Structure formats: C-alpha cells, structure tokens
Amino acid sequence: MNFLRNQLDNLKRPFAKGEKWERFAPAVNAFDTFLFVPNHTTTKGAHIRDAVDLKRTMVTVILALMPALFYGIYNTGYQHFIQLGTPFTFMEAFVHGAFKIVPMIIVSYVVGLTIEFAFAVYRGHEVNEGYLVTGMLIPMIMPVDIPLWMVSISVAFAVLIAKEAFGGTGMNILNPALTARAFAFFAYPTYMSGNKVWVSEAGNVDAISGETILGTLAAGQQVNYSLFEMFQGAIPGSIAETSTLWILVGAVILIATGVGSWRIMAGGVLGAAVMGFLFNLWGANALMSFNWMNHLVAGGFAFGIVFMATDPVSAAQTTKGKWIYGILVGIFCIMIRVFNPAYPEGVMLAILLMNVFAPTIDHYVIQSNVNKRKKRWATSQLKTA
Amino acid sequence: MSKGIRTRKGATISLNGEAEKIIKEYTSSSSVAIQPDDFFAMTPKLLVKEGTVVEKGAPIFFDKNKPEIQFVSPVAGKLTQVLRGAKRKILALVLTPEGDKAVKHKTTQWEKLNREEAIRLLLDSGNWPFLGQRPYGVVANPKADPKALFISTFASAPLEVDFDFLLKNNKEEFQRGINFLSKLVPEIFLSAEASFGGFFENIENATYVPVKGQHPVGNLSVQIHQLAPLNMGETVWTIRPEDVVNIGVFLETGEFSAQRTVAVAGSAVGAPQYIKTIIGTQLSELLDQAEVDQNLANRYINGDVLSGTATTENGYLGYFNNLVTVIPEGNEYRIFGWLPFLDNHIPSLSKTSLAWLFGKKKFDVNTNLNGEERALVVTGEMERVFPMDIFPMQLIKACMTGDIEKMEALGIYEVVPEDFGLVDYVNTSKIEAQEIIKDALTLMIKEVG
Questions:
Q1: Does residue A261 sit at the B interface (CB-CB below 8 Å)?
Q2: Is any Cβ of chain A less than 8 angstroms from the Cβ of B224?
Q3: B338 and B348 Cβ atoms separated by less than 8 Å
C-alpha cells in the first residue's frame, strides 16, 4: 500500500499547486481519491467527522442498483430467446444480455464522465460523484436495442443541459437520468416505443409480441401476464425496470442504509395505490379497470419511485415535503397512464413534473415554519407593548 | 420546577478517554493568557502596556464598542507579551504570575444591592464577561433587558464534564451566585440531566429544568428554544455553571475568582482527569499532568471535539471551557476507504457504515475529514441531529448567500455556531456549518446589531 501511495504521489507532482499542469489537478485527484481516502484533516468546524462521504453514498446506490441490473441483463436474453422460440440456458441468456448492455454502460460512463471531468477542470472544482449513479441509471431505463450513439447523445444532453447548465451536482432541478430518457423519448420516438423495441433483435422475428403491458393496455388489447409474472419481471420493458422483486431488494438496501428516502417511496406507493383504486371504481376504460395492484408492479413505476424519485437533489428536501412529493408522483404517474394513451408509461413524466414543483412544495413547507416564527414575534410584541 | 425538556433528535458519540473522576489541583502556572477571541465579536482595547505589573482583578483591556465592559487579569503578575496576528489583531495577552496582590471590592452588603448596583459591581470587578447574551452568543450588554438567565449544567457533547461532580465542593458558592444573579433577571432557568440532577435540583431562586436526550440537548440554544424562544428584539442572558461559583466566591472574598476546573480527556491522553486550575493556564503544564505525549501529532482542542477551538500544546486554556480534548491527528490515507460497510472503527451515524452495530463500544477518533468537500446533495441528515423547530440546511444556505431577511425568518436569532457541531460532523458533503453560522452572526451584528 505504501508503495502504491508513493507511486501516486510521484505521479501527482506535476499537478500540484504552482506546477505545470495544476489546472488538471481535479481530474487526477478524482482517480487518486478513488483509490485512497485522502489524508485531509479538519481545519475549521468540528474536529471529527463521520465516516460517510459522497463517494460512499453514491456507491451504496450503485450497490442497490445491482440486483435489478443483473436481472435486467438476464431478462434481455430471456425475452430474446423466448421470442425466437429457441431453447436456451441461463448462462446463454445472461451472456446475450451482457453483450447488449455492458457497451451501453461503458458508453454512458465514458461520455458522461468526460463531460464531468471537463467541467471540473474548467470550473476548478473537484469531480463530484453524482454521475456514478446517473451513468448507471441511464442505460438501465433505455430500451435494449437503442443505438449506442443515441445513448451518448442523450447522456450529453442530460449532463450538459439538465446538470451543468444549472451549476453542476447539487444544483440541478431535473433528475439527469430521467432527462436523458425524456430526451431520447421525444427525439427518437420510434426507438423508444412500439412493440419491437423492448426485445433484443426483435426485428429478426416476424410475429413479435413484445409490447409492454402498459403499451398493450393503451392499445386496447388484453394483457397476457399474471400479477406474479409482472412482479417477478420476466416481461418486456426497459432494461432494468421489469422486475419489481429485484427493485424491492434495492429499495431495502436504500432504506436500510438511509441513503434513499423511505418517505418518498412510501408516499409514491400510497399515491399510486389510492389513485389506481379510485380509477378501478370509475372503470371507464381498460386502463382504468387495470387492477391498482397491477399498476404498482407493471411498467417503470417501481424503478422510478425507488431510484429516480428519491434523488435527493431533484426531490423535495424537507421531511413534510418528501411525503407530499412522493404522493403526488404516485398520483400523477397513474393519471398520466390512464388519461394519456400516447404516453403509456407515466412515471417518467410524473417524476420530471414533480421535480419542477419540488422547490415549490419545499417553499410552502418552509414558509409555514417561518410564519409560525413571525406569529410568535408578533404576539410577543403585543405583550410588551 | 419546569416540566422539562425532552428531545429525540441528536446523537451520542461515545469516545475513549473520558476523564476519571478525581480532581487534582494545579494553580502554580508559570504562564497565563487571556485570548480576546473567546469573546465573540468583541474588539479589545488595551489598558496596560507590555511589561506592566498588574494585580489580580485589575482591568487589562476593555471592549471598544462597550467601554463599560472591562476584562481583568486572572492572576497577579506581569503582562509579559501581547501576541498579535494579522492586521495587529490581539490574539493573546500573556501574563507571568508573580506575587499575590489582588484588587479588593466591597461586597459584604451585596444582598442589599438593587439591580443597577449589582450590575455596576459585576462590571467594576471584571465579573461581567462571565455573562453571555443571546442572540449571537456575545458578552451580555449591561443595558439590555433580558427575559431570563439560562444555565445548563448538562454538558452533552462527547467527553464533556459532569458539573455535579466538578462543583461538588462549591454548592454554597453556587447558591450565593444564583441569589445574586436573580437580582438581574426576572427568572433563572437551571437545567440538569433528568436522570441525575445532583445538587442542582435543590438550588433555590432558580427554576429547575430536567433535560433528557442526546447531544445537543445540553446546549443552551436548544433549551432556550423550548423554554422561552427568542423573538426578534428579545434577549436572554447565559452563564456557565462554574462562573456562577466564581461570582459566589467573589461575593464572599471581594476578590476576582478565576477558578477553572477542566477535564483533560480524549484518546491521546494517558491519564484523563479533572484538574482544578485558573482561567488561561498554559496547556502544556496541564497536559504533562494528564500524561499526554506531546511529541506525537495531536490535535489539542479547547472544548469538545465538535465545537471546540484548535490550539497547540503551548496554547492557553480558553476563558470558558471546562474541557480540553486531545485526539490524534488523522493525516493518513485509507485505501478504498469510500467503500460502504468498511472501516467500522470510525464512528458514524450513517447506516452506510456498520459502526452502529458496535453501538455500546467506545471509539477512537482522529481528525481525518473522511472524504472531501462536495456540493450539498444528501438531504434530511442535518435535521436528524438538530432538535429545534428550524430548518438547518435552509438556514445554512441563507447564511451562505448572506440574505439577512431570510436568515431572520429561518431563525438565525436562536442559534450559535456550537449548535451546528453535529451538523458539521454528520453531513456527507463535509460542509463547515459552524464556520458559516459564525460568519453569518458576524454579519448580523454588523448590519442589524
């Protein structure tokens, strides 16, 4: 370890203050701090600090994403072979999926991190770890056959417009990963919806039945999957959103470590369940009669509410605000699903919409605290007067 | 007796090196110093020149903005050095004790004094700076009309002292001090740990407040917030328990009393213990007494690990603190230290570490930042350790932008930097909240007053 440390210190010498490549120090530091937690000590404020830092937090989120990702990789192969009608083993399915998805992840990280590093050097601050999660999320919510260049353009759009334009990590209004998907959704609609995009290499098969459940419903057709199949996840859909089961494992990791807000998740499920139930009672069309429990396991709702809505930067920041935000995400998600057949999946738009309103929610929560204080001041002045 | 205070928010960080309950006397210090920075936002103006010999209790400087407040020498001796920093700012007035001459005040009739006379006596004798004032945590303004005086005997920060033990031989003086102080304010709130109030429970002329909860529940801000929340334009006064005793001693003897009993604690201390000494004693002598290896790279802290002031082994005891903490510095690398669930020897309130599994264990800590400063990303973690009806993160952001109106609305009048000690500690982004609040309070004093 000491040897490695010394080598690193030697390598870093030209990047030190006042040296030739000082400007590029953030880029080198990003790699260095990835290996070693730096030897920085406290100078101001509390003399001791918690072991947690942003790297640890972000890595925990990535850990929580892993079950859903691995299942997504398997499911990609599974859907492919099922539609082809050829027999296959678990390994074959997994390898097929990995060949599709790993390149997407690589492209997402390379493009996104390049932009992040460039901005860090340009602005002279350290590289923030936020993109580690965003870069993983983006491929996970894309259809499997989307061309890699579309992935890279979506990533560039998300990082530049949704994040850096607002000042970088911690300042963005919209969730960058969802922005990437929304961009792809509106820029390349033929690659993002329909009945051929959800199954890998579906173009080779003639009689494909690879429509997502919500897509099927929106088209007014019968759904052939049971509640358990939807929950377990062997259904067509974006790469990692199909299995509610493995997403729940991720949710447990996020809640147990305190990294993801359980209030937002609980609020979201509550909002969606109530809204779905109300529509069940109304029951005017197929989507309205779609059982409220199915709403919770079908489509990207589970993935969205667990991994996207809980992004602390774009969500509401106050405790009360988190409940309101979560509930509204749930309500709007089901509402968009039911009322707008052009967008069979509502969770993306519901979260983006609530991202925009999160500061407003927080404003009113904080304002009520401020008003309470001002009222107290007013009564105390009455007493003394 | 008040119905008491109970908070659920907060945290206990158990550290190794708690002071053993024995008090050793150490009063023969060879160097003593008063550091003006111990009095927030006060600009000192010297009354004596370097080399002057002063009596104990003789004024040596006063507050430039409130000249009636003067600060006296805790010992009889010679002002050997005025340490100055950037822009000739006075950092410390170093005195070398010699002789035992002391300024005498007439205090035998103290029971008959009215409020103005009592204030006058405290001002003239140099006891006034013991009184603090909220908002801002400055030295009390003698012209203010405070709604109450607050004393917290529950020091809840890590390794903090037990005041019931520390003042066990000073019950009489404490009561006398309280009796005197009750002339100044309509009400005195005296708080103590609910499970064991000790002799504080039986003190007269004060409202006893049992307090239950984790740090920072012992902080005065939290208690004031619950008992008599500060509104705009209001003030309350504060005083530390041992300074009540100092006033009690002064009333009896007529001489300024600079008694200061400190616990020298922390994992780098060989024999952590209580030492009875005087305000401003040079630390090196206390550290020798407590068997601290001063050749090691240690962090010497006047106060607790969360909100204390860093100093050196040759530094001086602060004016107000009853605790000196010594912990090792942490300028070392940890390979892959950012991996969750590893390095559980570092205390952590986050569940991304398994340190919580060892909840009962006591931790060794060092001063490593355990990461680097980042943008504020994670939400909700500051609120968990902030037991006031205030939004800490929003207040910090308002302070960073210097928006006075917003700071007022979000509750800047009710906080002092030490309340953000745990916020500093827990936050993932390694933001220095105490520093931000301190700057904001300086701005408030300048702009609002």
A1: yes
A2: no
A3: no
State the smallest CA–CA distance between residue A276 and chain B in angstroms.
30
DSSP string, B28-51: --S-EEE-GGGSTT--EEESS-TT
Q: Which two tokens stand for residue B11?
A: 């945290």
Q: In this model, does residue B283 exceed pLDDT 90?
A: yes
B124-170: pLDDT as tens digits = 999 999 999 999 999 999 999 999 999 999 999 999 999 999 999 99
**With pLDDT > 90 as the criterion, what percentage of chain B qualifies?**
84
pLDDT tens for residues B66-99?
Answer: 999 999 999 999 999 999 999 999 999 999 999 8
Split at pLDDT 50, 70, 90, the class of B1 is low
DSSP character at residue B303: B
Question: Which residue type is seen at A3?
Answer: F
Q: Is A10 on the interface with B (CB under 8 A)?
A: no
User: What residue ranges of chain A have pLDDT lower than 50?
Assistant: none
Angle at A267 between CA A265 and CA A268, to 5 degrees: 65
> By three-state DSSP, how is residue B177 classified?
helix
Nearest by CB to residue B375, choosing from A63, A171, A258, is A171
Mapped to the 3 state alphabet, what secondary structure does A204-228 carry? HCCCCCCCCHHHHHHCCCCCCCCHH
Instruction: Write down the pTM of the prediction.
Output: 0.93
B338 contacts in A (CB within 8 Å)?
Answer: 33-34, 37, 53, 55-56, 59
Is the peptide bond between B272 and the residue preceding it cis, with omega within 30 degrees of 0?
no
Distance CA B419, CA B434 (A): 8
Dihedral sign, Cα of residue B347, residue B349, residue B350, residue B353: positive
Q: Which of A39, A40, A46 sits opposite B307 (nearest CB)?
A: A46
CB contact under 8 A, A53 and B430: yes
Contact B75, B258 (CB under 8 A): yes
Kindly tell me the burial class for residue A62, based on how many C-beta atoms sit within 10 Å of its own C-beta (0-12, 13-18, 19 or more).
middle
Please say whether the beta carbons of B150 and B230 come within 8 A.
no
User: Which one of B340, B366, B369 has the shortest CB-CB distance to A56?
Assistant: B340
In sequence order, the 6+-apart residues with CB closer than 8 A to the CB of B186 are B147, B148
Predicted local confidence at residue A202, as pLDDT: 67
Number of residues written out for chain B: 449
- Among A54, A170, A317, which Cα is nearest to B428's? A54
